Amino acid sequence: MEKAAIFKSLATLEIIKLRNKEDFRNRLLKGWRGEFEFYKLANKHGVKFIEGPWILRVSHEPIRILLYFHPESINSFPKELVDIRSAYLTPFILTFSISDETIPYPPPWHVQSTGIWQTSAKRPLILSVRYEVYDQNFVHVGTIDYNSRQILEKPPFKFRTGKQPRFSKYDDKYVNEVTSTEGEALGTDFLKTLYAKRFFINYLASTFFFVEIGDLDAILLHNGNKFIVEIKEKFPIPETNEFGWDAHRMIPYFLFTKEMNAKVLYCIREVVSENDRTFKDWKIIDLDKFLLYANYAAAIAGSAGAFGLGQRTTTLQVPVNEFYSLSQKSLKDTLNIILGQSKF
Description:
Number of strands: 17
Radius of gyration: 20 Å
Low-confidence stretches: 304-310
Structural class: alpha+beta
Strand content: 25-35%
Order of helices and strands: HHEEEEEEEHHEEEEEHEEHEEEH
Number of domains: 2
């Protein structure tokens, strides 16, 4: 499978969902670049990097489904990641293969009586993905693809149909341009897993209603320990030389860290400034330490995202010098220091 074809399918999949097509380059691709750079860093330092799962809440019951996407056989997936005893988190592993077969997007079941995507509208083609689903005991649950998405409405998932997805106009010229200029931004293996993850939610699950939907950026495995990772590209607040973290983003981690028995890391790919995105350093801090050093009195307003509702939210700040610098210590050494600290 050619890398360019996967990237073009990813761009098509995402851009049609956006009101402003430039958000693909300025927001989505920017975030994925940061995750890919951290993926490379973890591999270089010999720390296992796992693409973070989708987290789906199907009903108002306090139960969330975790969907991990794995490009290899089920036996190569790290079992300790899903070996959790939680009444509130239910993990599944989806091994996947990206097919040479192309399918229309938006999905043909999305038809408008008026507007852009009427029955007669010509739809762009994207690569299809096939998934083998396993529960946390590595028992095969079923196969999901373009022709069998209906099984998601049955146990153990019980997804509910009812969502009316929004699709914008397709700009073939822009998709080709961004594929030409940005197609090498992500490594092949990273890109494949990212595409499988995004295809599932944007295509196969596009008509299902969720009370809550979000994801984790990544999970690290080191010496039998799990680290939930949030990755951002930032520069320090000039007036205070601090990094900020939106409070609403921290709140879900209190559940996940308890139920998954994991530490939470805030990993910043530090750049020079808003206009100069030259890389400076990787800065890392764990959630416990961040909360200890946060300046609660100086909290500022920030914008919401991910699990947020789009409104303004509180941002807490911590001095840059309280973060660990990966230019001074390796990732492994930094994780060992964090593990050696007493819990908050």
